[in-house]
Write a structure and sequence with these properties.
The chain is mainly β. The longest helix has 11 residues. The chain contains 1 helix and 36 strands. Strand 32 and strand 33 form a beta hairpin. Strands 7, 8, 11, 12 and 13 form a 5-stranded antiparallel beta sheet that branches. A 4-stranded antiparallel beta sheet has the order 14-15-16-17, with no helix packed on it. A 4-stranded antiparallel beta sheet has the order 18-19-20-21, with no helix packed on it.
Length: 490
């Protein structure tokens, strides 16, 4: 397999990722009224200062509209509107442990905000918080509920507010991990899968969020989660892979079926370092998975088998203090397709993986690359790929309309894949239809261009002149992209 070129990776990103405007404005910071944010609307990170009441300590979530304008955000204690005042009817929306203060909760990924399907002015907040109980003759704190709160942006003169009777509604009643709350789009491109994990268990809760219902299912898979403070969970941008890392150096990588919501275990990895592990994040293509310790940035190639054998240390902490040690901590894939890493203490620095889809040190980790206008308290926003579309041709893609309906029941496939001397493009469309089939190489160059005529159901393509490697194919009609996928030629 040839090494993926930058042009090919950018091409993949252009097809699979859109502008991510809902994640374009980050509210971050620390303690005190002098705080800050990062604006990605121009395509590059633009830091700014502001005075606002809300402080952050780890917990962070926010959302923008589809033009990139901030709507509201939360530190896990309360919710602020775009003018930085308290969002209407949100007092004690996330009760227990930290209370309703300005300080902020201290859990990684304990709040997540998602657009409500088919309700363009409404948003569902999913949240957990620590609740006190006694175990082993000592006080413990653990979430006992996954809650949801419904926000309507038409309230309070357009500043938004919580809908009456829709605040802090329990979805799951169980002992849950402190955070690691994440989500991805259903294969229909409309609904959501929200993922939560039971504490001291191998049980995943999966909440299917539709326009008007929430359906909870369970699956036992992977390892027991016994160390749940400061770990992270994430999907890759395609929603096909999921990873969870725990501080005790356990990293589970799973495949995910966006149609059924079922996980399948790809690999359970024990990171071979005597350091606690904190962050995890996939590159834009989903090929590379990164994990962090205080002193290391680690890279895994998910296309390798086993994945664990591909471990590469792509950065060692450079001993910078600003004013505290700039250890590595939480990770986040930003709208510019770079990965940002917050420090594990309150500093004015962020680290950046500039080319995360390049293997080895070529991924270009630059420590302390971003200097912030004030100190940040370990905080990066918890967000997901809001722009992920449907899996065209999936049996669960029941929401497509117009031209895409042609591929709801009759999907396109490539076989064999991997191919050697030839491959078949298999399809089933109306007799009168003509579609364009294109194949691009690792440099984003067109290597194959054929018409798919509806009178036939398959096309044999000679690939004996292809170089060994990975290729991206696309099916389109006019300016409308119908489906795309990946194939390998040996």
């Amino acid at each position: 397999m040839t090494k993926l070129g930058i042009a090919f990776l950018l091409f993949i990103q252009a097809l699979f990722l859109s502008a991510q405007k809902r994640n374009s404005t980050w509210m971050i910071g620390g303690y005190g009224p002098n705080n800050m944010g990062i604006d990605f609307n121009s395509g590059v990170p633009d830091t700014f200062s502001l005075i606002r009441p809300m402080e952050f300590f780890i917990t962070n979530a926010g959302i923008c509209d589809t033009t990139g304008q901030l709507l509201f955000y939360s530190n896990g204690d309360y919710i602020a509107n775009r003018n930085h005042g308290r969002l209407l009817n949100t007092t004690f929306y996330n009760p227990t442990y930290t209370g309703d203060t300005t300080y902020g909760s201290n859990g990684v990924q304990t709040v997540l905000i998602l657009p409500r399907p088919l309700h363009p002015d409404q948003y569902r907040i999913f949240h957990v918080n620590g609740e006190s109980f006694t175990a082993h003759n000592q006080s413990e704190y653990q979430p006992f509920h996954l809650w949801t709160t419904l926000v309507d942006m038409n309230l309070d003169g357009g500043l938004g507010g919580v809908v009456a009777g829709e605040k802090t509604i329990p979805i799951i009643d169980d002992t849950l991990t402190w955070g690691r709350l994440t989500a991805c789009k259903h294969a229909n491109g409309r609904d959501w899968w929200v993922i939560m994990h039971r504490y001291y268990s191998d049980l995943y809760y999966k909440v299917l969020v539709t326009p008007d219902t929430m359906i909870v299912s369970q699956q036992n898979i992977g390892r027991l989660i016994t160390s749940d403070i400061d770990g992270m969970a994430c999907f890759d941008p395609s929603g096909e892979q999921y990873a969870m890392v725990s501080v005790n150096r356990e990293l589970d990588v799973l495949n995910f079926d966006r149609c059924t919501g079922e996980f399948s275990l790809k690999e359970s990895i024990t990171i071979p370092l005597n350091f606690a592990t904190y962050g995890c994040v996939f590159s834009s293509s989903g090929r590379y998975l990164y994990a962090t310790t205080n002193g290391h940035v680690l890279q895994y190639d998910t296309w390798s088998s086993p994945i664990s054998a591909s471990l590469d240390t792509v950065a060692l902490w450079d001993s910078t203090y600003s004013p505290l040690a700039t250890f590595f901590f939480m990770t986040h894939l930003a709208p510019d397709n770079k990965i940002y890493i917050t420090t594990a203490q309150g500093t004015d620095k962020l680290h950046v993986i500039n080319d995360p889809d390049v293997g080895g040190i070529g991924c270009n980790v630059v420590q302390n690359q971003v200097t912030l206008p004030s100190y940040n308290a370990l905080s990066l926003p918890n967000s997901v790929n809001y722009d992920l579309g449907p899996v065209i041709g999936s049996l669960c893609d029941s929401l497509s309309n117009g031209i895409n309906d042609l591929f709801v029941e009759h999907s396109i496939s490539i076989s064999p894949n991997p191919a050697t001397d030839f491959y078949w493009v298999n399809y089933d469309t109306r007799v009168s239809d003509v579609f364009l089939f294109e194949v691009f190489d690792v440099n984003g160059q067109l290597v194959e261009k054929r018409n798919l005529y509806g009178a036939f159901k398959s096309l044999r393509v000679d690939c004996s002149n292809y170089k060994s490697g990975v290729y991206l194919y696309r099916v389109s009609k006019g300016s409308q992209s119908i489906c795309n996928g990946r194939m390998v030629v040996n």
